[in-house]
Every structure is written in C-alpha cells, then in structure tokens.
C-alpha cells in the first residue's frame, strides 16, 4: 500500500499507525497537490490499496483495515474526523486564520475524552481500537496536551498508547516534531479545514484544561540554546575599549576603513543625503569600533568644480571663500547629528593636490592616458574655455529664438542645447562673444583597464549591496568608454602635463582621491591604510547613495588598477536607494523636505532623528520620510517599548534594592528569556556585520520587547510583596532586567550614542565590547553593582506638534485640501449607491470588461472614501465602551470594540509589513479579547446578564431600530423581486446589502433579525 | 440543509423509520430509534439506517468492504467539506469543479449504482446547486447531469420542486447565449 501525503500532515501519522496495527506494509510518498501528476487526488493523505483503490478518509480506512469493533468505535472515529480534527486545525492556525474561539471548543472536546476515559480504559471499551489510534494521532502532533491540567485519565491513556511497541516503531519513522496541523492547509484544494465552522457547544464551559498555546516563540527554544545561554551568562571583568590616538591597521587583526561619499560642498544636505552616506557610515563605524576592529572613518567635502565657481559668482565671493563658508555648514550639521568622523576634511588641500598629481603621473606612466581634441567655446577676454553653464545665447531651436538660452538647456522651449550651437553666444561673466576653439583634453583609457576590472569585480562584488552589483554589471555590459579627466576651469587641481598647464582635473578624477588625502591629513602613516604592507588586510567599506556607485565600482578602481601600486580597493560598496519626503521628492527650491539645519530647529533630539532615519533607511528599495511615521516610531518604539522597559527596570532597582543590583539565580524562565535574547543578539550582530542597519534596529527592539514581556509575565511588583522566596524571585527578575538594559545600552550605542551614554550614566557602567564571534548575553552588572539615578530617556511627540512641523516643511498642502473638500459620509453613501447601480446596469448590458472596468474602479474609489469618511466622522453612537453596572465592560460593547480594532489591525497589516507599526494595535486587540473573555465569564456567572435581551441593550434607540427594520423590509422585497429574475450577479449585491442591514440591526438590538434569507433556518 | 432534515430525508429514501432525530449537546446529530438505541454522528447514523433498510440503495451500499469504505468516505466528505464548504465562496467553487471532473467519467460516486454516497452528497450540495445560474450550471455540465438524474427519482426529490436544467440540453442542440 502507498500513503500519499504532504509534508508535516498530521493525518499521515494516523494512516501509518493504522497500517502498523493492521500489519500491512506501507510506503509513504510525499506529494504536492499542485503537481499535475497528482491532480486526481482530492485530499491528503490518500491511501492507495494494492488493488489500486484510493481512500482519502482516515476513518474509512480504519474501518476497512481493521475488523468491525462496534458502533461506539465508529462514533468515536467520526467524532475525531469531524469535530476534533477541525477544532485542532482552527486552534493551531496562525495569522489571519487564527481563531480565539477554538480553545474553548477544544477544551470541551478534551473534557469529553477525559470523562469517557474515566469510566473505561479505552475509548470504545476495554480494548484498544481504531478509535484510540485516531484520537491519539490527532492529539500527539503539535503537543496539544502539553501543560494541560485536570485531564489525568486522558494523560494516562495517552501515555499507555504511546508506550505501545507499534506506536514507538511508527514514531521512530515519523518523528512528531515534523508534524503540524498547519500542514493541513496544503492537504487539499479547499485550504485545509478552516471552512468547517467550529461547533458552538451548548454544554457548560469545560474550564481551562489545555494550555493557551497561542503559539509563542518561547516554545521554539531548543535545549542547546538554553544551555548555551546558561553557560554564557557569567561575569567577566570587561576589557576597556581601547581608544588609541591614531588608529592604524595591524597585521593579524581586522582592519576596517570606512568612507562616506563626499558631499558636494555647496549643497545643503537633506535627510536623504544624511542617511544615505554619513549617518550610515557613522553607525557602521561605531559598531565596528565596539566590536573591537581597528576602525577609521573618513569623510569630507568635495569642493572643486564648476558649481562652486558658479556659486562664487552668484554670491560675489571667491571659490575659496564659498568653500570655507559651506564647509562650516556641513561640519556643523554632521556634528549636530553626532557623526563621529575620525577626520572630516576637504578636497582643497595641498595633500590632495600632491596625491592627485602623483596618481595622474602614475596612470600616465603606465600608459592609460590618451589625448583627444574637443570643440569648446573660448572667452578671449576672460582667457578661459567656458563650461556649458557659463555660456548664454539665442536658442538654436526652430521657432523658439529665446535670447537667454543657457549653454545646456533653453528655459523657454525646454529643449536641450549644445553650447556650440547657440546663436550669438556670449560669456556669462563678461558678456563678450566667445570663439569656437578645439582644445585638447586628456582621457583615461577605461577600455584598456576593462579586463583587469572585470576580474576584480567578479572577485569582490560578493560584499556589495544588490544595487551596486546591478549598476556595475550594467556598466560593464555596455562596455567602457574613455572618459575625459580634464576641464578648462580655474577652480581645480592643475594638470601636471605639458600643454595642459591651464587645465584642471575634472572632479570625478580628483574627488575619490579625497579619501586618501584626508587620511593623510589624519595621519602621516596614511599609506598603512591605503597601501597596506603584505600581511595586513584592510577592508574598505564605502557608503553612498546609488547614483555614486559607478565612480566607486568602475572608474576609481580602474584608475587604481592602472596605477598598480597595491592600493586598497573597495571590498564593500554599501549603496542605498533614495529616501523620499512624504512620498514626494526633497526639493530645496520648493522648500519641500527637511534639510540638515531644519532637523536641528525642530527641537527633536539628534538621536531620535538618527534612530528614525536608520529605521527608515532605504535599504533594498526606496523609502519615505514621514512625519507621522517618525512620531509613531518615537512614541511606540522608543518611548513605550525601549524607554519604558529600561526605565522600569532601573526604577525598580533604585526603589526596592537601594540602587544595588541583586543576585541573579536563573530558573527556566530566565534561561528561555536569555535564549530568546541571544537569538536577537545574533541577528543584530549578523545584520550589522553586513551593515544592514535597519534590521539591526529590529533585533535591538525585539530584545527590549522580550524584556518587557518577561517583566509583564513575572510581575516582580507582586512578588516583592510576597514571601521571602517570592522576594528572591523578584530580585532575580530585576537584576536580569537591569542587565538587559545594560546590554541594550551597548547595542543602542551605534545608533543613538548620546542616549546610550546617558543610559550608561544611569547604569553607572561603561560600554563593553561586543563579541561578534560569540554573540551571547553575559552578566554585565554583577550583584552589588551600584546604579546611578534613573530618568526617562525619551519624550513623547504629540500629534499637534507633528502636524505643525508637517505644515512648516511642506507635504501638508494635500492634506489641507482633502480636509476642505471632504464630503460627508451621507453624500458619499449616496454616491456609492448611484455608482453601484450604474455598474450593475453596465455589467448586465455588456460583457466587455473594458467598458465597465473604469466605472468599477470609480466605485471602489468611492467606497474607500466612504470608509475613510466614516472613520473620521464623529461617532454617532454613545461612548464606545460604556460600562455595565458592575464596572465590567459589557460583552456586546467589547465585541464591537474587538470588531473595530480587528478591522484596524487588518488594515494596518495590509498596508505595511512593518511589525513595529501594527504590533501595538495587535496588543490592544489581544487585550480587548482578554477582557471579552473575562466579561463573558462574568456574564455566565450572573444569570441576569446571561442572555443579551433587547432590554439589556440600552444603547438601542427605538427610532433607529424602527428605521432600520423598515429599510430591511424594503430591501428584502427588492431582493425577492430580483431573485425571481434569476441572475445571481444581479441580486447578489442586493442580498449583501440586506445582510449588512441586518447586521446593523443585530448590533443595535443584540438580537439577530428573523428573516426570509436564513436558508438554513427556513429549511429546518 | 441541516443534518437533522437530511437524515430524515435519507431515512425516507431508504424506507426506514427515522425515529427521533435531534442534535446533542455537541451539536452532533443523533438518532434514537425504536429499540431506544441511540446513534451519534451523521455517517454512523446513515450506516445504521442502511443496515435496517432493504432498499436497493442500501443494498448497493454494502456489496463489499471496498464499496462500504468508499461510501463511508463520501459521506464523511459531505459532512466535512460539502456542507460547510458550500457556504464559502472559494471552497464552493473548488467543490463544484472537483465534482464536475469526477462525474466526467462516472454516473455515480461509488461503483455503477446509486449508493448512500450519492444521497449524502446530493443533499449536502443541494443548496449550492440551487444557487447556480443557468450559465454556471452549464459550466458544471457533468455535475448537473448527475444531479438532475438523481433529483428525478421520486424517492430522492420527495415532492420538492425540481431544479431546472433544461436549457443545458437545449444548448446541446442549438448553441446560443443564455439570459
């Protein structure tokens, strides 16, 4: 016989056991129902008999394989297949299929089993039967009975069956841990057993028997993790983080050289620039230092070039003065953001000139420079060739003739212009007419360097971000062309070559060498970093936005390869995508977006900006800056999660233990917590090693969430009032929490250095190095350690404040407009109705989707607006959660609140994958559900409140009810007439409308509306 | 159609006194017959009915152990999938498609004769088929053929109005669009 089943299917176990007890040899074949080969299989597992007959019902198979064992057995078999299995499937479901009602139902079923087994050793009497096999095999996977209480008879029975040799043999082939009811979803084409409604049991509440296994991560902790956590959690006096005066690479150690793309000097950096390069580089560098690597972070402003010359002209300053002015601006912004450069330099230094000129000579010597002639406009009066932007004239395009067209583009017709084609060109500076001259320029012969470059890229791109690889590959695929490296400008590094004395290097040739020259400003030993001796490995991490990738992955490496003097080449190109501003672009000219200096003016601490920008870092895809998101993350993650945990831990320690950290005596709970923390710690290290800063934050916050959860379940504030033993427990809990706070301070340091320092101050502790090799939590603060004075770390960002900022920095226009023109919910409802009618008519009259689709789209849009309007409209119903006389919220109100909250959560989950956003809402939902359970129990206890009678719903307004009932009657009439016409697509929407009305009525009165539509009721 | 009504219908069909049929505290259908013997569970009740019946359908349902097993699995299928699944848009579509495919190559669910399997699925799928438009019925032609064949048996329809499948046959002769 063959069993066809899918991976993890718990029912497969039942078939294996049946075959074993029937002594029939069987082989298992794992199949996928989507596989065309198995299209004839209806449900898994399916047993194929030797005759070829296929059976898919385990109960039918049991009856077939084993002899008749009586009616009682058959009843149990059916019970297990139609009641127990669906209930388990509901209970084990996760995500949107999770069903909170499954547990009470399952408890009742388990109670029935236990009761039966009290009076007889096996389900169908004195002997083991197929019924026992069926039920046992359903209870065994997913550990349903784990932790169950008051089911001793059932447990005894379970143990007896498990001990049977046949069962042991089957379990040896099919380990229980591989089975789960979730696998049923792939066992048929109906999505598992979720369509089977849970039977609403009329028998009294069976009480709590099974453990509430809303799957918790704690269950997944393995013994290995526990013992590793236990072994690691010891105290060793921390090594001081060594701070050398000058960091140099060392042989045999990890040496990390980090650069951030050089910002162009006269651009004010906006938030996108900041997170794209400097901030990312800083966070990574801080991590790298605390992991104990020799780390050097270099950056500076890129100052040469046309743009500076232009700006100088506009502001009537010399280029040097412009650079000085803007350099200070950059420096101040980065300092405010807490960017800890080892050296922040500039490209207009003597070192830069020396290094670039020497590099040029080397490239020339190795034969990678070619000379070509290029036609350019020369202003004889100014004695220089004019860059495109320095020429103006009449637009050459037919029919335009705009007189002030620029050398690159005409502002009137918008077409691109070639400077040499301008009619009557004039120099922007002196207004005299330039002449066309051909001028010799130097080119670097990239095609010649291409083979070496390709070889190097193949070898190195493993450590690059995805976009860096893609962009580089695209360049290489297109084939490299010679690139001009000289310009006829004054503001630049002179070209040390005969005949080129009046020319300077084009910025992209000189700027990358800025990394080297700035290092030289930092230390005379700069060559140890850039041309390390044999045996010393330097890893070069370069942070940039994706537009800078080609210069770092193709052009500069080609130059360095051409020089061939053993320069450090980039091993990790860390390129980000773009950060948008509230789903638009940052624009300085339109005043949209937040620029470096604005951030400072908002009064929001730099650390909060750093945290937010890192958690919204455009890793992998573009992301958006949003004020609401900033506030949400500050309030929910920093304030409520991290800040709350740390502060509670420290205040407990201060108030109850005289600011002295007590002894930690770990129990299983502590070890599970540590194991979970170690997982996140490992994730944090792995993420940061790859400079995945966004993921790093996620892991960090998960640790504090675990901490919060631990404190919440252990309730040390209760234990503190208890017996001596309980007080001892409390001290362990607090000591552990304070230690976790200390761990968090260390992990937080790269992201929020100031906050971390404050926290270290409150802990009276120093930063401890991170152990990237062995990321396990250790005891950082031993018993007896005195902590400092705790104080809140974060402040709430109020919505009003955020709205103010939103208005100030743009992005508010559209919200304002929306508010003004927002139609009322009633208007919208009417519009929806009208549009729906139109759609129905169209759909009935034609099958052409192209015709009705636009109308459908309109309808959906209207419906969305309506939903929005309903949400924002003041709720006409009385206060959302009135309390009943005994102070407990009534069941009905809670159910309604749960419904609303559930919708909200679904919407949120639908709109974003970011757990940080929806988790708080989910928590609220869970809390509500808990309250409901309590309320339901209270309702059952008090007979008066047992039935939600109409009179028990004081919120129902008689007039409202009447109006609704009339509406229902009308709608029902409409449905009946329509149904007579027969076409389901016509009357279906109306039926839905009717049902919606009825639901409204039910919500209002608490009694379901009687009606002609209840098919099942009518047929009874 | 609820379990109680279906059990009564099938009992009529088999010419057996249904006895007292009701739901127990677990919402499971039970049958208490003349000898005060109680049976719980839809499939188990159907088996007990068949054992008391001399009708052709009942005899067909127990010609061999293989047939019995197949009949049982379809009864269980009707309880576990057809009845609850008919109320789910997605599941009902899949059910219709699956049965339509099944009936492409056979006239009855098990073997070559009417069995309890057909009856159980017929009553479970009744409401769903009733809700189909003529075009949909045409799309599930094989299922419709099986259904129409069964509903024309007096012991099956038991006086209920028959569903209209006629346009399907018409369509076989003259291709055209339905309303």
UniProtKB/TrEMBL annotation, chain A:
<feature type="region of interest" description="Disordered">
    <location>
        <begin position="942"/>
        <end position="961"/>
    </location>
</feature>
<dbReference type="GO" id="GO:0005524">
    <property type="term" value="F:ATP binding"/>
</dbReference>
<keyword id="KW-0175">Coiled coil</keyword>
<keyword id="KW-0963">Cytoplasm</keyword>
<feature type="domain" description="WHEP-TRS">
    <location>
        <begin position="890"/>
        <end position="946"/>
    </location>
</feature>
<dbReference type="InterPro" id="IPR014729">
    <property type="entry name" value="Rossmann-like_a/b/a_fold"/>
</dbReference>
<comment type="similarity">
    <text>Belongs to the class-I aminoacyl-tRNA synthetase family.</text>
</comment>
<feature type="domain" description="WHEP-TRS">
    <location>
        <begin position="824"/>
        <end position="880"/>
    </location>
</feature>
<feature type="coiled-coil region">
    <location>
        <begin position="802"/>
        <end position="845"/>
    </location>
</feature>
<dbReference type="InterPro" id="IPR033911">
    <property type="entry name" value="MetRS_core"/>
</dbReference>
<feature type="domain" description="GST C-terminal">
    <location>
        <begin position="66"/>
        <end position="179"/>
    </location>
</feature>
<dbReference type="GO" id="GO:0006431">
    <property type="term" value="P:methionyl-tRNA aminoacylation"/>
</dbReference>
<dbReference type="InterPro" id="IPR036282">
    <property type="entry name" value="Glutathione-S-Trfase_C_sf"/>
</dbReference>
<protein>
    <recommendedName>
        <fullName>Methionine--tRNA ligase, cytoplasmic</fullName>
        <ecNumber>6.1.1.10</ecNumber>
    </recommendedName>
</protein>
<dbReference type="InterPro" id="IPR009080">
    <property type="entry name" value="tRNAsynth_Ia_anticodon-bd"/>
</dbReference>
<keyword id="KW-0030">Aminoacyl-tRNA synthetase</keyword>
<dbReference type="InterPro" id="IPR004046">
    <property type="entry name" value="GST_C"/>
</dbReference>
<feature type="region of interest" description="Disordered">
    <location>
        <begin position="867"/>
        <end position="890"/>
    </location>
</feature>
<dbReference type="InterPro" id="IPR015413">
    <property type="entry name" value="Methionyl/Leucyl_tRNA_Synth"/>
</dbReference>
<keyword id="KW-0694">RNA-binding</keyword>
<dbReference type="InterPro" id="IPR023458">
    <property type="entry name" value="Met-tRNA_ligase_1"/>
</dbReference>
<keyword id="KW-0547">Nucleotide-binding</keyword>
Automatic annotation (TrEMBL), chain B:
<dbReference type="InterPro" id="IPR036282">
    <property type="entry name" value="Glutathione-S-Trfase_C_sf"/>
</dbReference>
<dbReference type="InterPro" id="IPR042450">
    <property type="entry name" value="EEF1E1"/>
</dbReference>
<feature type="domain" description="GST C-terminal">
    <location>
        <begin position="50"/>
        <end position="168"/>
    </location>
</feature>
<dbReference type="InterPro" id="IPR010987">
    <property type="entry name" value="Glutathione-S-Trfase_C-like"/>
</dbReference>
<dbReference type="InterPro" id="IPR053836">
    <property type="entry name" value="Arc1-like_N"/>
</dbReference>
<dbReference type="Pfam" id="PF21972">
    <property type="entry name" value="Arc1p_N_like"/>
</dbReference>
<protein>
    <recommendedName>
        <fullName>GST C-terminal domain-containing protein</fullName>
    </recommendedName>
</protein>
<dbReference type="InterPro" id="IPR053837">
    <property type="entry name" value="AIMP3/p18_C"/>
</dbReference>
């Amino acid at each position: 016989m063959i069993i066809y089943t899918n991976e993890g299917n718990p029912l497969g176990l039942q078939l294996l056991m049946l075959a074993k007890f029937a002594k029939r040899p069987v082989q298992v074949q794992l199949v996928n129902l989507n596989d065309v080969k198995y299209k004839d299989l209806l449900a898994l597992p399916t047993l194929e008999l030797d005759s070829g007959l296929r059976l898919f019902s385990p109960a039918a198979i049991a009856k077939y394989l084993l002899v008749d064992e009586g009616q009682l057995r058959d009843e149990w078999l059916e019970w297990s297949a139609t009641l127990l299995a669906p209930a388990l499937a509901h209970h084990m479901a996760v995500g949107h299929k999770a069903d909170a009602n499954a547990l009470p139902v399952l408890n009742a079923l388990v109670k029935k089993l236990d009761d039966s087994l009290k009076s007889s050793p096996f389900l169908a009497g004195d002997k083991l039967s197929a019924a026992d096999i069926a039920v046992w095999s359903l209870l065994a996977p997913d550990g349903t009975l784990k932790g169950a209480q008051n089911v001793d008879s059932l447990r005894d029975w379970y143990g007896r069956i498990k001990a049977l040799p046949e069962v042991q043999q089957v379990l040896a082939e099919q380990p229980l841990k591989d089975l789960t009811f979730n696998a049923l979803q792939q066992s048929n084409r109906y999505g598992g057993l979720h369509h089977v409604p849970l039977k609403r049991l009329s028998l009294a509440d069976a009480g709590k028997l099974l453990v509430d296994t809303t799957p918790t991560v704690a269950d997944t902790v393995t013994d290995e993790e526990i013992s590793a956590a236990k072994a690691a959690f010891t105290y060793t006096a921390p090594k001081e983080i060594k701070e050398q005066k000058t960091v140099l690479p060392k042989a045999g150690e990890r040496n990390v050289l980090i650069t951030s793309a050089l910002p162009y000097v006269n651009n004010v950096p906006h938030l996108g620039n900041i997170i794209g390069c400097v901030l990312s580089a800083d966070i990574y560098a801080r991590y790298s230092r605390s992991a104990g690597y020799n780390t050097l972070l270099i950056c500076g402003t890129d100052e040469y070039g046309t743009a500076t010359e232009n700006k100088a002209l506009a502001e009537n300053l010399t280029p040097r003065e412009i650079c000085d002015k803007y350099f200070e601006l950059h420096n101040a912004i980065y300092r405010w953001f807490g960017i800890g450069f080892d050296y922040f330099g500039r490209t207009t230094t003597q070192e830069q000139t020396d290094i670039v000129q020497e590099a040029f000579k080397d490239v020339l010597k190795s034969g990678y420079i070619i000379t070509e002639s290029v036609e350019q406009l020369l202003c004889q009066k100014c004695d220089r060739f004019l860059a495109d932007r320095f020429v103006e004239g009449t637009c050459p395009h037919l029919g335009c003739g705009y007189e002030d067209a620029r050398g690159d583009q005409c502002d009137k017709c918008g077409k691109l212009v070639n400077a040499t084609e301008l009619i009557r060109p004039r120099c922007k500076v002196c207004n005299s007419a330039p002449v066309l001259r051909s001028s010799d320029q130097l080119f670097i012969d990239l095609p010649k360097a291409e083979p070496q470059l390709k070889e190097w890229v193949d070898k190195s791109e493993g450590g690059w971000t995805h976009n860096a690889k893609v962009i580089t590959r695209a360049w290489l695929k297109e084939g490299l062309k010679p690139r001009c490296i000289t310009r006829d400008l004054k503001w630049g590094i002179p070209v040390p070559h005969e005949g080129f004395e009046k020319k300077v290097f084009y910025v992209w040739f000189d700027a990358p060498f800025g990394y080297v020259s700035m290092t030289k400003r930092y230390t005379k030993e700069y060559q140890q970093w850039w041309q390390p001796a044999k045996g010393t490995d330097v890893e070069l991490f370069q942070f940039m936005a994706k537009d800078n990738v080609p210069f770092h992955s193709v052009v500069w490496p080609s130059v360095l390869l051409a020089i061939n003097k053993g320069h450090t080449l980039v091993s990790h190109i860390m390129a980000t995508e773009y950060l948008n501003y509230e789903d638009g672009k940052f624009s300085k000219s339109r005043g949209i977006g937040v620029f470096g200096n604005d951030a400072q003016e908002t009064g929001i601490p730099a650390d909060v900006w750093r945290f937010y920008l890192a958690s919204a870092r455009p890793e992998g895809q573009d992301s958006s800056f949003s004020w609401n998101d900033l506030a949400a993350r500050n309030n929910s993650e920093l304030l409520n999660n991290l800040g709350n945990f740390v502060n509670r831990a420290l205040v407990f320690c201060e108030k109850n233990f005289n600011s002295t950290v007590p002894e930690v005596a770990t129990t299983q709970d502590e070890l599970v917590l540590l194991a979970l923390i170690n997982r996140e710690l490992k994730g944090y290290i792995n993420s940061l090693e790859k400079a995945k800063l966004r993921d790093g934050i996620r892991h960090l916050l998960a640790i504090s969430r675990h901490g919060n959860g631990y404190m919440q379940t252990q309730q040390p504030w209760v234990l503190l009032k208890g017996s001596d033993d309980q007080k001892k427990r409390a001290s362990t809990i607090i000591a552990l929490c304070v230690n976790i706070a200390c761990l968090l301070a260390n992990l937080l340091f790269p992201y929020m250095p100031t906050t971390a320092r404050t926290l270290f101050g409150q802990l009276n502790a120093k930063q401890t190095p991170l152990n990237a090799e062995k990321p396990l939590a250790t005891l950082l603060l031993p018993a007896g350690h005195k902590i400092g004075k705790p104080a809140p770390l974060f402040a709430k960002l109020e919505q009003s404040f955020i709205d103010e900022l939103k208005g100030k920095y743009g992005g508010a226009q559209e919200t304002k407009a929306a508010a003004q023109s927002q139609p009322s919910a009633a208007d919208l409802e009417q519009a929806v109705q009208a549009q729906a009618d139109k759609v129905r008519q169209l759909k009935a009259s034609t099958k052409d989707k192209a015709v009705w689709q636009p109308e459908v789209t309109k309808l959906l849009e209207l419906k969305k607006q309506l939903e929005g309007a309903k949400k924002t409209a003041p709720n006409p119903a009385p206060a959302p959660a009135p309390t009943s006389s005994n102070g407990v919220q009534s069941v009905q109100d809670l159910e309604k609140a749960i419904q609303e909250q559930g919708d909200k959560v679904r919407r949120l989950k639908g709109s974003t994958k970011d757990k940080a956003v929806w988790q708080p809402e989910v928590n609220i939902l869970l809390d509500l559900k808990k309250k409901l359970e309590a309320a339901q129990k209270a309702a059952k206890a008090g007979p008066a409140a047992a039935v939600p009678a109409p009179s028990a719903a004081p919120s129902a307004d008689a007039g409202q009810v009447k109006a609704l009932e009339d509406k229902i009657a009308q709608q029902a009439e409409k449905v009946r007439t329509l149904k007579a016409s027969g076409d389901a697509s016509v009357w279906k929407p109306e039926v839905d409308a009717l049902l919606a009305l009825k639901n409204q009525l039910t919500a209002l009165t608490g009694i379901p509306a009687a009606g002609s539509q209840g098919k099942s009721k009518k047929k009874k | 159609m609820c379990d109680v009504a279906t059990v009564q219908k099938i009992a009529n069909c088999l010419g057996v006194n249904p006895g007292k049929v009701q739901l127990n505290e677990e919402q499971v259908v039970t049958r208490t017959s003349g000898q005060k013997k109680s049976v719980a569970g839809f499939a188990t009740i159907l088996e007990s009915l068949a054992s008391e019946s001399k009708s052709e359908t009942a005899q067909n349902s127990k010609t061999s152990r293989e047939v019995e097993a197949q009949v049982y699995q379809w009864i269980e299928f009707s309880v576990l999938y057809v009845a609850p699944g008919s109320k789910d848009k997605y599941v009902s579509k899949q059910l219709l498609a699956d049965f339509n495919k099944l009936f492409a190559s056979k006239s009855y669910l098990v073997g070559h004769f009417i069995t309890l399997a057909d009856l159980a699925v017929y009553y479970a799928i009744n409401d769903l088929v009733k809700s189909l438009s003529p075009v949909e019925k045409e799309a599930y032609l094989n299922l419709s053929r099986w259904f129409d064949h069964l509903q024309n048996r007096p012991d099956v329809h038991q006086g209920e109005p028959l569903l209209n499948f006629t346009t399907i046959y018409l369509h076989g002769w003259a291709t055209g669009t339905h309303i």
